[in-house]
């Protein structure tokens, strides 16, 4: 099980570091034949809370056999529909491996960093919202500083910070899925290759 890992995005090789961390976790889930569900939480109505939908938008093309995605700019997963989405996931897949992604607030010197942890995400905790926890693995991007008036802090978060985090997270996930699950045509290619040799 992965311990809480903070990735400083000011250092080089952020994407490859993310890929290597995520690959170990996804490999373990794949060995147990678990479906991979990427759950991107947030809303495009708030700059600071738009990290999840932006990651989902960047990863829409990643959906393939064994990999599923919930939450993008068109269909965001937010406080109002999260319980229903969780119920839908649990009713659709048997023991899925859920990777939950969300924005969070933190210390000033940690803004722009990414946290990866092998424990469920607590969405809306910065806003004191009572939402269900979700995820076997959580990925959070620190978009701004915590403190008073969190709602205003999220509304006044720099889009540049959120976009940069969304880019790192989506690329890290993309490369880890390619390395563990393979491309969309990976399974088809293997089947065709086997049938031609027989």
Automatic annotation (TrEMBL):
A Pfam family hit: DUF1256
A biological process from GO: proteolysis
The entry's keywords: Hydrolase, Protease
Stored SUPFAM superfamilies: HybD-like
Annotated InterPro entries: Pept_HybD-like_dom_sf, YyaC
GO molecular function: peptidase activity
NCBIfam families assigned: spore_YyaC
Official protein name in the record: Spore protease YyaC
Native source species: Clostridium oceanicum
Gene expressing this chain: yyaC_2
């Amino acid at each position: 099980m992965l311990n809480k890992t903070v990735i400083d995005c000011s250092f080089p090789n952020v994407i490859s570091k993310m890929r290597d961390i995520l690959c170990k976790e996804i490999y373990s889930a794949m060995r147990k034949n678990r479906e991979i569900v990427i759950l991107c939480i947030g809303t495009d109505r708030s700059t600071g809370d738009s990290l999840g939908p932006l990651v989902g938008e960047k990863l829409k093309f990643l959906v393939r056999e064994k990999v599923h995605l919930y939450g993008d700019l068109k269909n965001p997963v937010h406080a109002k529909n999260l319980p229903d989405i969780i119920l839908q996931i649990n009713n659709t897949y048997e023991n899925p491996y859920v990777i939950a992604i969300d924005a969070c607030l933190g210390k000033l010197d940690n803004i722009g960093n990414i946290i990866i942890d092998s424990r469920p995400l607590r969405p809306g905790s910065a806003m004191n919202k009572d939402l269900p926890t979700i995820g076997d693995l959580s990925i959070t991007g620190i978009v701004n500083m915590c403190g008073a008036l969190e709602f205003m802090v999220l509304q006044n978060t720099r889009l540049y910070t959120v976009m940069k985090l969304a880019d790192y997270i989506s690329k890290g996930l993309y490369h880890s899925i390619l390395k563990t699950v393979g491309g969309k045509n990976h399974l088809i290619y293997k089947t065709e290759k086997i049938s031609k040799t027989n």
